[in-house]
Predict the structure.
Amino acid sequence: MAWSATSEVNRVRPKEALSRVELLQGISEDALDELAQRATSMKLQPGRVLVQQGNTDSGLGLVLEGTAEVSVNGVSRGTLTAGDYFGEMSLIDGAPRSATVTAGPEGAKTLTVSPLTFKEVIDSYPAVSRSLLTHLVTRIRSLEEALG
């Protein structure tokens, strides 16, 4: 099946998509601009695997157009749509992928931020590190509270 265009409603601009990533909330506009400019965009045919569970490739993936299916151990776990993202934690720890993400039936346009790009932007904008640390501590505290 050929790549099909999606409506404007199902599209998200790179910077807008990055601003929705919980881990990146609170970083400067300049840092978001640089991440958006340096990220790699790809159009994927339906059924193309973006990331494979267990692989150690790392980086942040964002769906800009279309959909992507998420599965764990071959079991469907949901659908990502324009503006959704995956792999944000692998930017920091490089751990193996916990799920497989595959382009949906109409294909997908994605944006990828590599760990190297992320590190270079963090190094260029020291306040980004502080924002990330604050976010991670908040997330840990929330998890601890949920566990009792």
User: Anything to note?
Assistant: The longest strand covers residues 100-113. The chain is about 35% helix and 30% strand. The chain has one domain: 8-147. Helices lie at 14-19, 29-38, 90-93, 115-124, 126-147.
